[in-house]
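User: Structure tokens for this complex, please. No commentary.
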Amino acid sequence: MGLLNYLRSTILSKVVMAITGAILVIYVIVHTAGNLLIYLGQDTLNSYSQFLHSLGPILWIIRIILIVSAILHIVTSIKLKFENWGAKPTKYAVKNYLKAKFSSRTMIWTGIMVLAFVVYHLLHFTIRVTNPQHYYPEFYQPHNAVSYVLLERFDVYKMVVLGFKNPLISIIYIIGVVIVGFHLDHAIQSMFQTLGYNQKHYFPIIQKSSTALAIIIVICLVSIPISVLLGLVGGKI
Amino acid sequence: MKVKLHIWRQKNNKEKGKFETYELNNVLEDMSFLEMLDVLNEKLILEGKEPVAFDHDCREGICGACSLTINGIPHGPEKATTTCQLHMRKFKDGDEIWIEPFRAKAFPIIKDLVVDRSAFDRIIQAGGFISVNTGQAPEANSILVPKQNADNAMDAAQCIGCGACVAACPNGAAMLFVGAKVSHFAYLPQGQPERKLRVLKMVEQMQKEGFGNCSNLYECEAACPKEISVRFIALMNRDYLKASCSEEKLEVINNE
Amino acid sequence: MILDGKVPSGHITEKWDKHRFEMKLVSPANKRKYKILVIGTGLAGASAAASLAELGYQVEVFTYHDSPRRAHSIAAQGGINAAKNYPNDGDSIWRLFYDTVKGGDFRARESNVYRLAQVSNNIIDQCVAQGVPFAREYSGYLANRSFGGAQLSRTFYARGQTGQQLLLGAYSAMMRQVGLKNIILHTRTEMLDLVVINGIARGIVTRNLLTGKIESFVGDAVVLATGGYSNVFFLSTNAQACNVTATYRAYKRGAFFANPAFTQIHPTCIPQSGEHQSKLTLMSESLRNDGRVWVPKNPGDKRKPTDIPEEERDYFLERMYPSYGNLAPRDIASRAAKRVCDEGRGVGPTGNGVYLDFSDAIKRLGKKVIEERYGNLFEMYERITGDNPYETPMMIYPAPHYTMGGLWVDYNLMSNLPGLHVIGEANFSDHGANRLGASALMQGLADGYFILPYTIGHYFATTKLEKVTTDHPEFKKCEEEVKERINKIMSIKGKKTPTQFHRELGKIMWNYCGMSRNEEGLKKALDLVPQLREEFWNNLTVVGEEGDLNIVLEKALRVADFLEFAELMLWDALERNESCGGHFREEHQYPDGEAKRDDENFCHVAAWEYTGVGNKPIRHIEPLTFEYVPLTIRSYK
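Assistant:
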């Protein structure tokens, strides 16, 4: 297992956490931006979705990178966590934290919950097994078409709207996204620290930006189910 | 003033420990925390009971011998203060105080509140030095050190080796201690020839001693009586990463 | 007996070079056949152990701490002197030598002091190479500051933690040798006796502080680097564990103890706040640059200091020493503070304190400037006392700080017992009757890095040592004696704790052998100390077991030796019928309170030989000659 040799080193393990984490964070940002296209209407979102699907092998490369990153992230975190529990076999009877934020102390738990959420999310929207009834084909005419043709594509917009109209599903998503936010709050600045970018004057800015970015992502993502529930988006579906 | 103390008592490393409760009625606010424990110990001795064992020596905040986790915080509630410099005026009449040893797998308990911190010495032994024999040194002013670097080195070198960082870390990690020593030399021109080898060897020894991993919680920095910054951990991470891709890494591997 | 310091002949500037050439060498291949036991890991011990191991000797190091880095050298604040003359202000080896001899009030050996000044520059080079982060100018060159009223800037410093940084330098050099297996390190191991075979020091007996195990270690030479004995006063600036046991046990085995009465009292310490107090904390002397020292004019004035009007304050240093004012030298300032407190005008809960007032300086310079200069110290003061020195004056009082006395050594740092070498504060050598600021670090490192490594080789090359193991009857005898002593202490089962005895001893010593001494008081103390010792051996209580980590037993063993040592100190103070430096005999002073030396009768080192507990020891003499620094009167008018 030459590839997993890095696990023998505490710092390299952390570096792998940081780099795979960074990949996943970038993905979350891009994904969030993509999701916001819902506010531009059915056609925009569905076109975007079709564009992604049209990437073909590139899409699969991206997917593989994400899957490998996620697996390494998870495997490494489990290894680190078990070591950490082992390094502190007896807990204090009384423990007061001075600086460690709630989000920082719960990374393993938010991580597990994020994993569960992602699995559900994939089953729901990507593999589409939890609510297959929300999944419709859509017919549209390409802009450059000379003659009148209708092409079939998946109606992502409708699927999202129908999904979020179910309050239970919306609540699951809102909770899931907030947990992702907690995870990111610690994760983003932690990445800089682990990779050695902590300078006296800039690090406080990085720390604040980390929290700000997490909050922005949460607001963006949470706004979608709320908008659907309030009928601001997809009212006519 | 009166205080109620819950103190961890443990005969030795093999037997299990437990809290014992003691009440002290005439504690003065001018007493240091350790003087308060002295009073308790004198009382216990006169009652024919074994006094509470704890490490301490200089009592001016520099030797790093004193430890104690007081109400869940290594060295107690006052910022940037060792236990020996903590005074009872920081507590109120009638307070309950929980006193535990520094806890970590790499700091086994010897007795009561005394723990074995020799792991730190072995980490220094592995590489926490500049290899210069007595007599080899060139004229002092032939080595120029920019003031900024000297100040940074001193910020890191202030570490007193007390182990509060390890005690405060939920993972029992020693990254702040090791990071401070690595950074101290990394900032100085004298430290450059061995820079990569040093960080590789010290981190390796740190792992052998059974310290945990860094989760970037920064509890260490908050508990450190010398306020050593976690940016030294970041510097160590960077140095380690560079060194891992260098020839020195091969040398370390070959020597194993 | 007249002792011979074995000072080499020739002009003082050439003695050390000449001696280095004349000393016999041990070849590299033969060095590894010699084992050296180093006791103590402070500046002197750690630097010696590292240097000797680098040379190829087998070294074993002993410390009672959990780590060698805890040694009390770590607490030194101010700096280290060297004659580099970087500021171009006219410094030289000769001037450093001259200042140190004069500062020691002409009771040090000239040749040793000159050598110390000579190697001072090498120390700075060595420490820089080790990575000690000394203060720098923006140019990258080393910065200097003045210290202790010196007229030039020769002090190198690392913020207020110079001792810590120098010790960590020596410690890391030593740990490197431990890692290379050239040094065997024994932590939490306390030396309890010296083993002398056929008149030669050959080993030590130790107690493992964790298991109580009594063990013997044999070596070809023993190096004591065990520091000073200020804790004989109970309250001092020393660390809690500092003790006299190692040097005192060597004395009991025949080594001579030199000038035990020479102790230094530092004027600016935070005063005792109550009976519970366990130690006194030093506040940097630099505070007297801007602070004004005063007490109320009327005895028993209990008003708050800020309520006492200007005309009812006595700025006694400014009154008594108009030209030096608040910057009067350490010993003078200390004695003046004691005098006003003895008049009942002292302040604070115990009446042993004087005010150090910054209100004028704050008015003159602004709070910001004062904060820049002394911010750290003010914070530390507030942490300890709870008072804010920006608003109310600080309280200070003198406290025992350093001991110039120690085991007698010759020019080679070897005691009268062949094989027993003594370095750092543990020996008596370089500071005479008073130590100058920033000189203790210099001496510890000079001995360890640059002097002992040469002279110990000469000892090996010129001495035929018989093969000895720890099975030798003398080792067994010493072990038995140590065990017997421990058993005796464990079996008294009285009613007083070791700390209680220590505190009582400290009071006797402070009252009668502290800042000023007189014949009557010393004789009284010579009566009181044996009584206390008698009580100790009949009414001590020690709980716990001997074969375990036992903090009470550790303390009791140390106090037992202090109780014997105190008597030696009193004899020395009594017999030295003159005032010099830190040794102030009230009978011998000029009308203005200046110490009055008696060079005709006391221009010598007094080295004491043990003759049994409670017996008056024998006083030997090593005459001191001052060829290069003429004897003069120190005056601060």
